[in-house]
TrEMBL record:
Residues 320-527 form a coiled coil. CDD domains: PH_SWAP-70 (cd13273). The lineage of its organism: Eukaryota, Metazoa, Chordata, Craniata, Vertebrata. One of its GO terms (molecular function) is DNA binding. Keywords: Coiled coil. The keyword Protein biosynthesis does not apply. This is Switching B cell complex subunit SWAP70b. Residues 214-310 form the PH domain. It holds the Pfam family EF-hand_SWAP70_N. The keyword Mitochondrion does not apply. InterPro entries: EF-hand-dom_pair, EF-hand_SWAP70_N, PH-like_dom_sf, PH_domain, PH_SWAP70. One of its GO terms (cellular component) is cytoplasm.
Amino acid sequence: MGCPPDSLEWWLLKSIWHAFTALDVDKSGKVSKSQLKVLSHNLCTVMKIPHDPVALEEHFKDDDEGPVSNQGYMPYLNKFILDKVQDNFDRQDFNKMCWTLCFRKNLGQSQLLISNDDAFKIWCIFNFLSEDRYPLIIVTEEIEYFLRKLTEAMGGSWVEERFEDYKLHLDSKQQCLNAWELISVVGAGHFSKGMDRQTLSMGINDVYQELILDVLKQGYMMKKGHKRKNWTERWFTLKPSSISYYVGEDLAEQKGIIILDGNCTVEPLPDKEGKKCLFLIRSSLKSFEISASDKKKKQEWIQAIQICVSLLRQGRPAPHREARQKRRELRLRQQAEQEELELRMRELQTANEAKQLELEKMRKALEESAANAAEEEKKRLQTQTELQDRYKMDLEREKLVRQQMEEQMAQKSTELEQYLQRVRELEDMYRQLEDALEDERRARQDEETVRKLQARLLEEEAMKRAELEQIHLRQQRAISETEAEKQELERERLAKESALQAAMKQLEHLEQERQGALEQYQTVMKKLEDAANNTKSWKHKVAEHEGLLRLIQPGSKGQKLITNWGPAAFSEAELSLREKKWQEMKNQAE
């Protein structure tokens, strides 16, 4: 159902919503037209609205469209019922009618500690504290407010831990309750342990009296009569704009009412006529002398009445209604702030994810570079190992050749000693020995060449190692620069945010200065326009009376001049000018 702007209509719609939902047996969101006719007739009867059966039949005439949804029922409800409603009906009867339609379907009393009347009062309190949206629910904050009120009314102490445990259980489900779940919570006695049923019922009634009937205070006091001046005990009930007094607390017979307004006053009186704890209520029509049972009750009643009068002067609602509105506004503000915070967190998370992707790309690039360098190093080491193995084999081969040559030389030497007498053979052997020595010299040269080649390879290996060290250092510097760039980007972002906030503040300050300068400029222009109009008017008058009147200009503070026109009629400059003209006229005449 929609949300009418009028508070009375909105309050009525909550109860009507319960009745409409109860008629929706199969929970399809629609109700048969015959049931809506009965509901509309009952609403008109209980709210004292003239019933128009023709309009009802015309609106819900039989056709092929079938049942009607709540959106389809709203046009008739607004036009023929809510637009005609006046605040002249019994709201409790209206609530009773809606309650009768819905409680049998939703409420099971087999395990509840409360009566049907107590459940009805909790249902009314739920409608008062529930959120202004459908389906109707009551949030955790309002549940705690109601249970605290109920505990105070029963004279018990609020156990914060018990409600916190229940709130954790509630948060794990849905964080709110509907009307029947709230009735079950109170009726099951979870928060009234140690209290009997009568105490629980009285506590529910006290909270109902305050929140629904706007009874801010009630109790027995003595009232002095206006005619017979006798003192009679009455049951007083204080509401935001009136004080009613009855014969008894059953409210069966009302004896009178005191209308409160902003001009009412309440003041204590001294004890007299055997009565104590007196105070006087002055209304616009009469004054009432009241006697409380003790000083505490007297002070409580005086303060309560003064609060009502103060609220009437300020045009504010009852305290519990104003507190409910403030709690709702606070929840809306917190919800908006939470949504804004979530939006900012999502933006920051998106930026962080983008940064993480960028860093991941850089990490992969560094890993690829390191892998390439390691592969190159592996290939170089493999090549170096192969060269070393080859040179080792060559050296072993050369060593073997040398050993063979040494054996040959030993054999030659032996032969030389044996065949010393044979000179020719010795010379031949000598030549062979020189050839062998020449071969050895060449072998030594080859060995030297191999050693030089090995030294050059070792030098190249050292150079390669130096290059690898430089590559490793460049990698370390690149990693350090990446971390530095990340920190620099973070500092730049913080600096830009600070600069942006400072610029916004400066812009707001400049805007305020511009507005002030514009207002000053408009004021000055207005003054200049007025001065120009006054000057123009004055010059016009002077032009019309030229020769008859002359403007009196400030003269010098010296000795006044005496002329034919009187004292100080001309200034010195004007007098000199007139003397020159007179002299010229005289010369021309001669």
